[in-house]
Amino acid sequence: MELYRVLLVDDEEEIREGIRRKIGWEGLGFELCGAAANGMDALELAEQVRPDVVLTDIKMPYMDGLELCRRLRQMLPASKMVVFSGFDDFEYARQAVGMNVYEYILKPINAPELGEVLGRLRAQLDQERLERRDMEALRRRYEDSLPILRELFFTRLLDGRIPAGQVRDRAARYELELPGGWWAAALMSADVSGQDGEGGCDELLLPSIQSFFQGHFALPGCTLHTVLYNDTAALLFRLEGEEQVYPLIEELGRLCRLAASLLGLTLFAGVGRPCRGPERLHQSAEGAAAAADYRVLMGGAQVLYIGDLEPDRSAGLALGEEDRRALAAAVKLGGREEVARLIHRQVDRARERRLSLPQSCMFFLEVLRALTQLAQASGVELEEVFGPGFAGTVDITGFGSLDEAEGWLLERGLKLWERLGRQRSDSAWKTVERAKSFIEEHYADSGLSVETLCAHLHLSPAYFSTLFKRETQKSFTAYVTDLRMDHAAQMLRDTDEKTYLIAERAGYADPNYFSYVFKRHFGVSPSKYRAGERQG
Fold first, then answer.
1. I want to staple 239 with a disulfide (CB 3.0 to 4.6 A). Which of 182, 351, 356, 439 is the partner?
2. Is the pTM of this model over 0.70?
3. 441: phi then psi, degrees, rounded to nearest 5
């Protein structure tokens, strides 16, 4: 069985060595993966070895054991902490419990006592490992349930009960590939009238119909998903283009005739209009159901297409809320290609319905309005983006074609994208410059932290830390340390101040910790650095 990893932290080498030698690590189910002499070194080591258990003293230089536990609880929340100390101090024990420490042991530590603690720890870790395996079993059961979950997903999709922005994510969750492009739905049923005296479709036949189409459908460039939907077998097609709907209708007719010959079944299909993207399949399914309603009027026709039976009532276009959000997100945070793609997709909706320029006017103005609202909300002057004298509207009939109108919209969309990008970059740069100024003014304060800086800037620490590192290529802590070290080195070169005073003026309350950090930064102690500079 895999051994649990232990990190040992104590500033006394004799104690570290004694614990290392006296504990039968492997027999207890552990391995000692590292040892550190102080909390600062232990933090760095813990990030590398990812221990399951940390054994730490409380009283240590630079960073005590309780502060180490507090930070490790953020970094490695699953790790177990065991704290030991030479001081029988209730306050230490109380704080240790607050840090979710597993055990508090008084020094001197004896091997049997520590062995008992490790034995209990192993039992708890084994239990947690067992629970994780149970989670794996749950995951396997989930995978076994995937066929049912997929059926439910498709049913909700065809009912229009999944928000468009969630369709791709949910499909991926159920390991389904539903790419963009053209889709169409057909609803297939079997006419069994005359077999039992009543019309309709026996639901027991639906799985057979589903299997028949999966096995015999053959239209080049078209892929098929089948799902049981209400009292029909729903056939969902991914098409090469909108025009492929008529070859699809021919193929469905062929399969209906084949089913009559091979299975003795009279099949009937209603076909909906092609739609852009799987997110709109419910619209095609509605059309397929509407086509099925014409069956009585159309006599013996086995495949009916709603586009042949009714005019396209979706010709009146509107810019939906999802489209507005997607366009705004692209202009504010996306790339040039994404902005171009979304604007093209909107204008392409007018092309798909073969609308004239005048018919497209209201829709064009909706897209334009979405861009102007975004500019106004971002504090951008409209004339900077849309040209001098822009009054909020444009006469679309002044364009020669939809392509020309699209080019105008794209040019303005990209201008707005560039302006917001500069605005965002300027804002980030100004924020980081303000942060640098604050750090320069307060680096001598040993209490300087990212929290105090963010309170000054009115930003969340998480956002600021990401922004600061992106702009400076350094973390806040590394930047402050480098600045303090530079100032300390300058004071060592230019003054005769004592080291403890330089440490204080550089922001270190503990002179020993200052010397420790200085040596790690420059490779020599402060006194040797000063001597070397003076000799040089």
1. 182
2. no
3. -75, -25
